[in-house]
């Protein structure tokens, strides 16, 4: 399997997470890791094509390598949305076949599409046709509801591969579309890592990343050692970003780490924060993504308290972030 630059970056990726992995979060994460592949929040094709909300695709050049995740189930609409994403310069366009939320189901996309691999293949084919060579990928579950993942997942991969997709991120849990909340769907269905590992062993030409329940670089490295091409980390990368990302470049990519001290990462964010606030943005829009950077360190609770209580107030700016750092031991 020949690797391109985005394949290489996908050795470690931060999962797309609604309300979390926005452009401010991605800038913060990129400071800690130059190499890790970052994903946007899911952007729906209808919002882009029918709603004209192209501003949802805005990002900073510093974020590369960065992938955009699209939600939708209409092939033509997804093709149009893909063209918009490509025009914005994203390194990858990913189709969401994993989100179990009610609002996603009501739009007939997300995890419910696991029930219709033929439609997913049509969507992927249309997206590839519109992508002008930018890679189109799929993020999926191992199945939904009463489906048997041992039967469903291989068929799904084969059908969608037939449409031209060669890279998948697989959340190693089923999704229950009725009876479990999105939060519960991230924890309650049991993980089946061996099934995902088997899919890679049986399909060596595919680039497969594993997702779900991975909390550390040690765990990610074990999946890579077991044969996976990549590991995708979600909540741990958000809640303990320094633990996951600050040594990612050296451990996962053999490259120098940008920073050794999370304090230096925070200081490096100050110019970005200053520019954001000066342009009329709110400090809390940025700092809400930074609350966990000192997780486990003395003074971390005080850091979080200062920013949580005061970053939303009028006039709050970089000086508050510096004051919050003074609370650290």
From TrEMBL:
The active site is at 99 (proton donor). Residues 14-324 form the DUS-like FMN-binding domain. The keyword tRNA-binding applies. Keywords: Flavoprotein, FMN, NADP, Oxidoreductase, RNA-binding, tRNA processing, tRNA-binding. Pfam families: Dus. Its cofactor is FMN. Signal peptide: none annotated. InterPro entries: DUS-like_FMN-bd, DUS_fam, DusA, tRNA_hU_synthase_CS. It catalyses: 5,6-dihydrouridine(20a) in tRNA + NAD(+) = uridine(20a) in tRNA + NADH + H(+); 5,6-dihydrouridine(20) in tRNA + NAD(+) = uridine(20) in tRNA + NADH + H(+); 5,6-dihydrouridine(20) in tRNA + NADP(+) = uridine(20) in tRNA + NADPH + H(+); 5,6-dihydrouridine(20a) in tRNA + NADP(+) = uridine(20a) in tRNA + NADPH + H(+). One of its GO terms (molecular function) is tRNA-dihydrouridine20 synthase activity. FMN binds at residues 16-18, 69, 139, 171, 211-213, 234-235. Its EC number is 1.3.1.91. The record marks 96, 183, 186, 301 as: Interacts with tRNA. The keyword Amino-acid biosynthesis does not apply. Belongs to the dus family. Catalyzes the synthesis of 5,6-dihydrouridine (D), a modified base found in the D-loop of most tRNAs, via the reduction of the C5-C6 double bond in target uridines. Specifically modifies U20 and U20a in tRNAs. This is tRNA-dihydrouridine(20/20a) synthase. It comes from Maritimibacter dapengensis. The lineage of its organism: Bacteria, Pseudomonadati, Pseudomonadota, Alphaproteobacteria, Rhodobacterales.
